[in-house]
Specification:
There is one protein chain. The protein is mainly α. It has 14 helices and no strands. Helix 1 crosses helix 5 and helix 4 runs antiparallel to helix 5. The termini are close together.
Length: 306
């Protein structure tokens, strides 16, 4: 993959993200509007994008679909182990270990994952990303909640209702249509494509708007997030590279799997930290720094290894 193409796609997305930052800074957006836009993306446009991308990817073999699901399952089994090693090597204090492990495991595979994969790999990339996010959603509402609420029991934490999100429902429906070889009527498919096409600009605007809450000078107060950012964005993808190279030979599956590992810390960590009384400031600063660094790290990973 040519470096110019990668950088061009990433820069375009960050320009849209900068528009979101500007709109929030100037007061065209506010917290309430941003929250409603987030709900719109998560509950409407992303499910539509998943449906349209999966149903227009009938040429993808069933073997590849099963392989991607297995890779995703393996990813969210291995990352908790690697995240524990990261926090021990970095000497993270006990009270922050759960948060750092959460941030290491759960990257921005949704808001940033879909638009970047669509830019780099087209609808097939979105299709595979949706499969990853099926496993992601199950993991974040099980493993993630355990890490963010270390002082509670599993019974108190895990709820099936939290796992069944619109994205999961859309993914299951799309998988059913795919395996049954059912094609949606053209009117419905075109409508889903139209609605789904809003996901990329809206998602990047939301990310940009959310970053206005963080003061850049505050990044200097937690120096440990700098080495952590390098480990998270560069170290982990390279560590996982030999395993991916050994088991994955399809170039698009390999590319999607690797780039998803290089995604910055997900915005969801701020929401979870706020909801469950964890360190919101640390979470927000890490999201900002890793998101900014991803402008360099994602092109580097893609150009060096794809």
């Amino acid at each position: 993959m040519e470096l110019y193409t990668i950088v061009q796609q990433i820069v375009q997305l960050f320009i849209v993200m900068s528009v979101g930052y500007f709109l929030m800074f100037k007061g065209f957006l506010n917290e309430e509007i941003n929250k409603k836009l987030s709900s719109l993306v998560l509950s409407v446009t992303t499910p539509a994008l998943i449906l349209s991308s999966m149903t227009s990817s009938q040429d993808v073999s069933q073997g590849n679909v099963i392989l991607v699901l297995l890779i995703a399952l393996a990813t969210y089994m291995i990352l908790p182990i690697l995240s524990y090693i990261v926090v021990r090597v970095m000497g993270v204090k006990q009270s922050e270990r759960g948060l750092f492990m959460f941030m290491t495991i759960f990257s921005n595979t949704g808001f940033m994952g879909y638009p970047i994969m669509q830019s780099l790999f087209g609808n097939t990339g979105v299709f595979y990303t949706a499969l990853f996010n099926m496993i992601f959603n199950i993991a974040v509402y099980t493993i993630g909640l355990v890490l963010i609420q270390q002082d509670k029991s599993l019974k108190e934490i895990i709820s099936i209702r939290n796992i069944v999100t619109p994205g999961i429902v859309a993914s299951i429906l799309a998988l059913f249509l795919y395996f049954m070889n059912i094609t949606l009527p053209i009117t419905i498919l075109n409508s889903a494509q139209s609605i789904g096409s809003m996901t990329t600009p809206l998602a990047m605007i939301i990310i940009g708007a959310s970053l206005t809450k963080i003061k850049f000078k505050d990044l200097l107060s937690d120096l440990k997030i700098y080495p952590y950012t390098f480990i998270k964005q560069i170290g982990l993808p390279i560590i996982c590279l030999p395993l991916l190279s050994y088991f994955v030979h399809d170039p698009i599956i390999f590319g999607v799997s690797l780039i998803l590992l290089a995604m910055p810390v997900g915005n969801s960590v701020v929401l979870f930290a706020s909801e469950y009384g964890n360190n919101v400031s640390l979470a927000a600063k890490t999201v900002l720094l890793t998101t900014l660094f991803s402008m360099v790290s994602i092109p580097f990973i893609a150009f060096a290894f794809l």
